[in-house]
Amino acid sequence: MGQKLTQYDHELRKRLEESRKKQRITQEEMAKCMGVTIERYKRYAYGESKIPVEKLATLFERLPVDPDYILLGKDNSVMRVLGYVQSSNDMEKSNFFFELSKLYKRKHEMKSADFLTDDGMLIETKKKKSDK
Question: What's the predicted TM-score (pTM) here?
Answer without folding.
Answer: 0.53
